[in-house]
Design goal:
Number of helices: 4
Radius of gyration: 19 Å
Helix content: over 70%
Structural class: mainly alpha
Distance between the termini: 55 Å
Order of helices and strands: HHHH
């Protein structure tokens, strides 16, 4: 392999690493932004209940997310932000032991909102 081929190969490898690192940072920034936007709903210990106030807060933050990101909100980013809230927010008696199914349901509702 000659020098120019080696330099090209290194630039491809390091370029990909740089792009991957940039994408990870970009996804983390979006997750942080979504986390902040959904806080008025998901930061409340009753966020997952069917209570009318929780439903109203969910609808409000979904409107805020659509205003900020349009219809192209990445549901994986939404799911990650919601999971952080589920783990960070103090829970009340009767809260689920495992949030997976609850989060899956809200991701589906968010997708269909």
């Amino acid at each position: 392999m000659n020098l120019s081929s080696m330099l090209y190969l290194y630039s491809v490898i390091f370029g990909k690493l740089f792009i991957d690192a940039f994408l990870v940072d970009s996804c983390k920034e979006k997750e942080d932004e979504v986390y902040a936007i959904i806080a008025p709903w998901a930061g409340i210990p009753t966020w997952y209940t069917g209570h009318q106030l929780d439903q109203n807060r969910f609808a409000s933050v979904m409107d805020d997310l659509h205003s900020r990101f349009g219809p192209g909100l990445d549901m994986k980013v939404f799911e990650a932000a919601l999971r952080r809230h589920a783990l960070d927010t103090p829970t009340m008696l009767g809260a689920p032991d495992n949030w997976d199914q609850v989060i899956k349901e809200f991701v589906t509702m968010a997708r269909n909102h």
